[in-house]
Inverse folding.
């Protein structure tokens, strides 16, 4: 049984993690902490893996404290940048178990979204055309989504590496209907009440189309990815800092 | 048996019409004319309905000549405007059978596209959000498609008539990913090798979505609509000029 | 302001109704009752419309009691049959306001599902082929869904009324992949973790396809329909028993 | 420039190959042969790669003859079995260039279909549920399609290898709506006028769905795959018999 503690256990995501751990046959819930609780309660004795889902302003501090405790951490909080990541790497090197400490950070725990992004990049060089449509609830403040930008960049890079030129396109398109062009890939953003987070990648050749679509219907969509990462940290994940769920998928 | 003559019989669409008429159990092919042929060969004796699929520069002249011959006409050629339509109405009034002459002109003979447009307008007032995605082959010169513009206008008009306000939307969308706004409705245009002509209308409420999609895979997609219009002219269509396939659908 | 009371207010659906009424600008929440509460607390003085979402075993009794109280009722509970409906009609006739009493019962309050069903039936006679795919979460015990059966029956009836014959089909299909045939229409049921309740109707002619899809992502999908019915009962709905949300849609 | 000869050049597929070769910047059309023509006209002097698209009854003989001529062959004809493949291998071993002879046979040249099949198998172990829907024109005699069977088998094998158990399912499903079960995977076949050849794989976890769809709109959909295989044979494909387009994709 993997002993899992949750930091941010009362939050929107953290409470889902608690439920997911309780529902997993190979895990048992250890400590559940939230704002104000003492992180030093978490030790290698009571915890194999900590799942941290809080807010960007406190997440770095939590991760550094947990490394100092010598426990492995799966981080679901967003807001990481190169500087923060460097601090994590330094803390691992200076921590109690520099050779075996594991920290995992992912911008997206939805397996379907990570796979869609990966498959689209793999497929891109075999198609003459590629476009990305992302669809979200209308209370999302920005457009397009970070995931869609990443997918477009990955497609653009794959096309460039394969020596593909510009895609064929309409020539009279003044009104903006053709969307935003990111690294040569047209990206369209739909905002529709009722939706949550969805992405569709369209790839086309003469006479054929490949469509890859990831639907995240609710926050529960992150849990299979969180459990997968937790299991990897408890078994064969490499030591050090690992970034991105694709690193843990057998692709 | 309905006797059908085809004008523009060697053209891309006209040759499909010839095949479709030959394949219809209740029709027989009368004359097949093309550029340079004498339209006065077509008479009420040999023809019940003429299907005219030529080019905008000659279509008006053809239709006027066929009205003068006293035969009913289904027109698939595009490029009509109010002035040209007025000439058709005048020709009917001054022609040999002003009380019974029938002329039918439609911008789109694909039944699926006409129904999608109609259903979207019907449904619009029951949804908080609505967006239009049209997808075409990349050699189509313009974007968005005329059909998508019409659908957006119809949705916008239905929302306005129902007293609906603006749709909820993202607030940080500088890059153009949100597409073109037509009468308050966001319209996205995809151009992808392998596609032909497709339109998808997305309608959303809290917790639910209605999607209506029309796919036209090839020119054959117009034939069921052409045959339907031809049968209507041969039976119970009203006299005079009728515009739009929705007029002949029982909706 | 429409005064709305909720019976079954602590139930899964009822609690959503309470939230939806509280969120509606033109409604105010009157009484919220649940099992064991006294229905005679609800009177025309404090309530314009009651929304009843309980369980089949008690719903008929509740509705009869509410009719006796002289308040109008929107019923979301399932499990109605001809005998029960006859009892409702009799109770209206013998109740305190036989000329003005309004009762509304609907098997499905999701507007998108009701519209999809209606549009599919409207479109059916214009297409050579039609099939229904319904998709649900895998804890739904039965397959296919009642909605899919209804849609298939409606398509079958429309085809028969239009004189259409059998659809073209494969001839070597021993293994069951072609699904269940209901009134001549093939119905396929998908059961997939992550889904809620979805239905897709495919209609095809040579070269073209019309697809109509309704997605119900969660129980909230019923609320726009519940509010719409509540508003109709408070304004221009006809007296007596009305069945089906399509009766209240302007189609 | 790759010199390409076509055997079966007047056939449905062969004529498309002729057009595709003529349209490729890096290829030139060498000989075009059809039934009755002398295959010994094709030699290493005039031809780098032969594309053979005929019928099962003559394809083996053609391939053996072309191996005897010492030219490399891309075979698009179907109907291969273990016995025939063994004859091809023997002919290579006994032919004029046993060390360098290349023969490529593929059951499906649509890149989108091959990728969809491959991606589905890769993703399968990460999802609790998986189903396959294939959709074809109604003049296809059999159901389900060979491709769908292959996809279901690949998903089933991936699940078994990962130790996944049965998928969750409805329990009351007498009528056949749940489709055909192949290696534990439900397969549904739609037959709809207007369609050509399409496959959709649905993968679901709590809260999320991954959908992979391949559309083949017409025979032209095979040409990118045929050209890709031809280029591989002219460059870095391994000697001997290679089976399946996935062998030539960088996955």
């Amino acid at each position: 049984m993997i002993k899992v503690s949750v930091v941010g256990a009362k939050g929107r995501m953290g409470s889902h993690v608690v439920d997911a751990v309780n529902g997993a046959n190979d895990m048992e819930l250890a400590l559940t902490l939230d704002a104000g609780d003492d992180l030093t309660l978490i030790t290698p004795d009571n915890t194999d893996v900590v799942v941290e889902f809080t807010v960007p302003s406190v997440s770095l501090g939590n991760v550094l404290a947990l490394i100092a405790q010598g426990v492995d951490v799966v981080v679901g909080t967003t807001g990481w940048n190169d500087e923060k990541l460097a601090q994590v790497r330094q803390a691992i090197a200076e921590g109690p178990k520099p050779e075996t400490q594991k920290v995992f950070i992912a911008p997206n725990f939805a397996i379907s979204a990570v796979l869609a992004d990966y498959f689209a990049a793999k497929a891109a060089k075999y198609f003459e055309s590629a476009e990305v449509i992302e669809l979200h609830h209308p209370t999302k403040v920005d457009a397009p989504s970070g995931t869609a930008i990443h997918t477009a960049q990955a497609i653009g890079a794959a096309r460039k590496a394969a020596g593909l030129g510009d895609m064929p396109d309409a020539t009279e398109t003044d009104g903006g209907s053709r969307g935003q062009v990111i690294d040569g890939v047209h990206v369209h953003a739909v905002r529709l009440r009722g939706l949550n987070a969805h992405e569709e990648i369209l790839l086309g050749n003469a006479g054929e189309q490949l469509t890859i679509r990831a639907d995240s219907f609710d926050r529960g969509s992150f849990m299979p990815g969180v459990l997968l990462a937790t299991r990897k940290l408890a078994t064969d994940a490499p030591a050090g800092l690992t970034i991105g769920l694709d690193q843990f998928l057998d692709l």
Summary: Chain A touches chain B through 49 residues (CB under 8 Å). The radius of gyration of chain A is 20 Å. Chain A has a mean pLDDT of 96.
